[in-house]
Amino acid sequence: MADAADTPPASGAKGLSASKAARLVGNTGPRPTAAPVPPAASVPPATPVSPATPVPPATPALPDDVDGPGPDGIWSDEEISRLQETWGEFVRRRISGDYAVDDFGFDPEFTDRVLLALMRPLYRSWFRVEVTGLENVPADSGALVVANHSGVIAFDSLMTQVALHDEHPARRHLRMLGANLVFQTPFVGELARKAGHTLACHPDAERLLQAGELVGVWPEGFKGIGKPFSQRYKLQRFGRGGFVTAAMRTGAPIIPTAIVGAEETYPMIANAKTVARVMGLPYFPITPTFPWLGPLGVIPLPSKWHIHFGEPIPTDGYPEGSADDPMVVFDLTDEVREQIQQTIYRLLVARTSAFG
Question: What is the separation of C-alpha 312 from the centre of its chain, rounded to a whole number of angstroms?
Answer without folding.
Answer: 16
